[in-house]
Design a protein that fits this description.
It is a single chain. The protein is an alpha/beta fold. The protein has one domain (5-245): Aldolase class I (TIM Barrel). The chain has ten helices and twelve strands. Strand 4, helix 2 (63-72) and strand 5 form a beta-alpha-beta unit. Helix 6 (154-164) runs parallel beside helix 7. The radius of gyration is 17 Å and the shape is globular. 47% of the residues are buried.
Length: 260
């Protein structure tokens, strides 16, 4: 088993840090830069920052803000939202992003994954898949921050994205998002078994046991979370210690010794 990563997710809207539930009812919970500074000292493995309005409003990625974020971030930084071209990726990497997360643009033009992988390498691409479950029809992928039903099956879509060069899958359950009721284990297991790249489970973490379960029972290679860290006393360090006690290999970080 690969060493499992703990990755806080920071959702960015109109220059503020926001959090909602089921991809709705977004409310401001602070500012991005202070949150990044806090996480630098909390033994996180990576950070994911996503502009949740960029695709819906057809905005280009805010490279200047990303440069500011990167200056304060001493762990690998993944940036998503509004990416539609190789030029966008190039600007984000030059601004300090280590990886890019692509979701909506891949549905419009799957070839963007091929192009980015060919130019920058698979390790640069985190393919983001947002999934909603329906009682009558099962799982379907959504784009535009969960607002548009693509009709695609998440397992088949994950396979295609990986075949085109995606180096990781960020798999988010829209139904579980912000509920703190646990990850969707069935969804995660289906996708993890279907691809040969790491799957980052997202959506639903409410306690450390949820993280342990999605790794041991569903095959996730990393856990992404937001609400658990915003609204409870539980921390990334605590999550890693709990997973270690459960026999899960984790990364030991030395934040602050080496700056980006």
């Amino acid at each position: 088993m690969l060493k499992v990563r703990v990755i806080p997710t920071l959702l960015w809207k109109d220059f503020g840090l926001v959090k909602g539930a089921v991809f709705d009812s977004w409310r401001r919970v602070g500012s991005i830069l202070p949150a990044i500074k806090v996480y630098n000292s909390r033994d996180v493995d990576e950070l994911i920052v996503v502009d949740i309005t960029a695709s819906n409003e057809r905005n280009q990625p805010d490279h200047e803000s990303v440069a500011d974020f990167s200056e304060e971030c001493f762990v690998p930084l993944t940036v998503g939202g509004g990416i539609t071209s190789l030029e966008d990726v190039l600007h984000l990497l030059h601004s300090g992003a280590d990886k890019v997360s692509i979701n909506t643009a891949a549905f419009a033009d799957p070839g963007i994954i091929d192009s980015v992988a060919s130019r920058f390498g698979a390790q640069c691409i985190v393919a983001s898949i947002d999934v909603k479950y329906f009682d009558d029809s099962g799982y379907r992928c959504f784009s535009h921050s969960g607002s548009q039903d693509t009709g695609k099956d998440p397992v088949e879509w994950a396979r295609e994205l990986v075949s085109r060069g995606a180096g990781e899958i960020l798999l988010t359950s829209i139904n579980r998002d912000g509920t703190m009721q646990g990850y969707d284990l069935e969804l995660t297991e289906r996708v993890a078994k279907a691809v040969n790249v790491p799957v980052i489970a997202s959506g639903g973490a409410g306690n450390y046991q949820h993280m342990i379960d999605v790794v041991l029972h569903a095959g996730a290679s990393a856990v992404a979370a937001a609400s658990i860290f915003h609204y409870t006393e539980q921390t990334p360090s605590g999550a890693k210690q709990a997973m270690k006690l459960a026999g899960i290999p984790i990364r030991q970080n030395f934040i602050g010794l080496v700056n980006k």
